[in-house]
Design goal:
globular, two-stranded parallel sheet, single chain
Length: 308
């Protein structure tokens, strides 16, 4: 439970990697911001359980829902259920809490993921591609998106959904952090030609487009438009760290190692599934955002020095 009167924005996940970037940017664009997060000492709330928003009648104009569970591979059934408890049930709990206010916020922004498409390779996937996500993470996000569409239509709330790829920014998390640390400590291997392209987006660019999205609504992919190759990322990171480029491993060697990983299991750093993801291009089309939101992102390759 938390309180604050006459706020313009309610931001969930404010202490997360993307949430911090959003907060930094929107501080200058909105009058008041309520920050809600599991690690926030002033408004600590576990959204996976029902909660209340107190004393903000008519004050919240926009909800930015960036809280969620990601970046982990579930090893047990209970860990799989955590994704649904946080990403799906947590979204429902947030909306139920908003319903108890005197007036619902007119706009709601949901931070989703390109993982909802459920593909490991492909080029320039658009927003109308089938949602075939198969992991607990992606399936929980799909359920949340579908539920929000129904809830927002029923309550006349303008819904904006951002489907994001790999997010870059200062002190990144997840796969980008692993790449940076691997190159920093000489434990990263470049596989084959390293020419697979991946979509990526700069965190502050995402934050900057949110005020526009609150007025427009709709579902959008966001990328930096460059879709750098692994080789380009490796070179840029190594240069920023003043390190040599990573050692190259022929594809056939990596494939043999991956087969070993299939046998040994999660203790081994690579398996056949990971190898396919590393060596296959996967990019997403953001033309809709460019045309409808005026999306003009920066190249992540130009900002690598800020990541280190």
């Amino acid at each position: 439970m938390f309180t604050r009167e006459d706020a313009n924005v309610l931001l969930t996940g404010s202490s997360g990697f993307l949430g911090q970037s959003i907060l930094k940017v929107i501080r200058g664009k909105f009058n008041e911001i309520i920050c809600l997060g599991s690690d926030n000492p002033y408004s600590r709330v576990d959204i996976s359980a029902p909660f209340e928003i107190i004393d903000a009648p008519c004050g919240i104009k926009t909800v930015i829902h960036a809280a969620g569970k990601a970046h982990t591979i579930p090893k047990t059934l209970d860990e799989e259920r955590d994704f649904y408890r946080v990403n799906f049930e947590g979204t429902k709990n947030l909306c139920h809490a908003l319903e108890k206010l005197e007036k619902l916020p007119p706009s709601f922004v949901f931070i989703s993921t390109v993982a909802v498409y459920g593909v490991d390779q492909g080029l320039c996937l658009k927003e109308n591609a089938p949602l075939r996500g198969y992991t607990p993470y992606s399936k929980s996000k799909i359920l949340a998106e579908q539920w929000l569409h129904e809830w927002s239509a029923k309550n006349n709330v303008k819904l904006g959904i951002l489907r994001l790829p790999l997010i870059a920014g200062p002190r990144p998390t997840g796969n980008l952090s692993a790449m940076v640390n691997g190159i920093r400590y000489g434990k990263y291997l470049s596989i084959g030609r390293a020419d697979a392209r991946k979509s990526i987006v700069w965190a502050e660019d995402v934050a900057n487009i949110i005020p526009v999205l609150t007025q427009k609504g709709g579902t959008y992919n966001l990328t930096d438009g460059v879709h750098p190759t692994f080789g380009e990322l490796e070179t840029a990171i190594a240069t920023a760290l003043n390190k040599r480029r990573p050692v190259k491993v022929p594809y056939w060697v990596a494939k043999a190692l991956a087969k070993t990983g299939d046998i040994i299991g999660s203790r081994f750093p690579i398996n056949s599934e990971k190898l396919v993801k590393i060596t296959s291009s996967l990019t997403f089309d953001d033309q809709k955002a460019r045309e409808e939101l005026g999306w003009r992102p920066t190249s992540v390759l130009d900002k690598i020095s800020q990541i280190i």
